[in-house]
Design brief:
Shape: globular
Strand content: 5-15%
Mean pLDDT: 96
Number of helices: 14
Structural class: alpha/beta
Helix content: 40-55%
Largest sheet: 8 strands, parallel
Radius of gyration: 19 Å
Number of strands: 11
Strand order of the largest sheet: 1-9-8-6-5-4-3-2
Low-confidence stretches: none
Order of helices and strands: HEHEHEHEHEHEEHEHEHHEEHHHH
Length: 311
């Protein structure tokens, strides 16, 4: 992964819409990982500003996430090409229609998948690596866990696998490698980076979370989302049991994520976070997060070497 992406450590920062801007992406890349600007539904003007911010901070490689369901996806692709962004991660669908254009510009394409079938399909279409995301992650989730899905995909395709979902420290990093991955993507912990453009109340909500703090909403819509349990999720889950229509549920959830992430309404907004929220204990610099993961992994490797030497 390091050779493929021209980075020091095989650690990718998750592309959190609204809050993973150029400042966070640059800080992660400067620390040796791969920072990612999360575009969400933003337009090309917003992305250009964030790219400029990142390039003012670092000359290292960073990526842009292409949200395929965005109404601005076409103009975002054009800007990515024009700005010569070297790496793209994708989410929210199948990037097949853009694969040829991106690959022709020598851009590395790393799709996020939540199933074995989609991983196989995108590998055949020319993806450079696959980000395999288990249902432990925050935001939109699939049905398979990281523990089960990563080795299945690693056994089935011949390109690198990056594990995502439930990874926050050196233990998760080493576990992912043991499962067959060649790198990891970390999201929730980077929400609590100092450089993350998120409301402090959102970070505090994650830090105070415990093991059962998150809940999955939206199963009835076919687009389940993991968030920290609060007054909004209680209302939403009740509405699902009462049989509200898809349109009514969509209206109920509209704008709730930025309400929490940008405005700080962590009770009636949607606080997207993974199950590892219970392991996040402080707000710290992105560089420290990267180094902590690597140092933690090194300590585990040293323990394993000691174990092997025992008679």
């Amino acid at each position: 992964m390091c050779d493929l992406l021209n980075i020091q450590y095989p650690i990718l920062q998750g592309a959190m819409a609204w809050i993973a801007g150029g400042k966070l992406a640059a800080a992660v890349s400067k620390a040796g990982g791969l920072g990612v600007i999360g575009t969400g539904n933003a337009d090309a003007d917003w992305l250009k500003q964030e790219i400029d911010i990142a390039r003012q901070i670092t000359d290292r490689v960073f990526a842009v996430n292409l949200m395929l369901a965005s109404p601005h996806v076409q103009e975002i692709v054009e800007l990515i090409v024009a700005e010569k962004i070297p790496v793209v991660t994708t989410g929210g669908g199948n990037p097949g229609i853009f694969m040829e254009k991106l690959k022709s510009e020598n851009i590395k394409v790393l799709p996020v998948v939540a199933s074995l079938a989609l991983a196989r399909r995108l590998a055949r279409l020319g993806a450079d690596a696959i980000i395999v995301e288990g249902m432990e992650s925050g935001g939109h989730v699939g049905e398979m866990s990281t523990m089960c899905l990563v080795p299945m995909v690693a056994d089935a395709i011949n390109i690198p696998v990056i594990a995502a979902g439930g990874i926050a420290d050196g233990r998760g990093f080493m576990a992912a490698l043991a499962l067959g991955a060649e790198g990891v993507q970390v999201g929730t912990r980077f929400v609590c980076a100092q450089e993350c453009n998120v409301h402090p109340a959102y970070q505090e909500k994650i830090i105070k979370a415990r093991d059962r703090a998150t809940v999955v909403c939206g199963n009835s819509t076919g687009h389940p989302v993991r968030a920290i349990h609060n007054k909004f999720t209680r209302q939403y889950l009740l509405a699902e049991t009462q049989g509200l229509s898809l349109e009514e549920l969509e209206q109920m959830g509209r704008g709730k994520y930025p309400a929490a992430a940008v405005e700080g309404d962590v009770e009636y907004g949607s606080v997207l976070a993974g199950q590892i929220a219970g392991l996040v204990v402080r707000v710290e610099k992105a560089e420290q997060i990267v180094l902590d993961i690597i140092e933690g992994a090194t300590r585990i490797e040293e323990k394993w070497r000691d174990f092997e030497c025992r008679p």
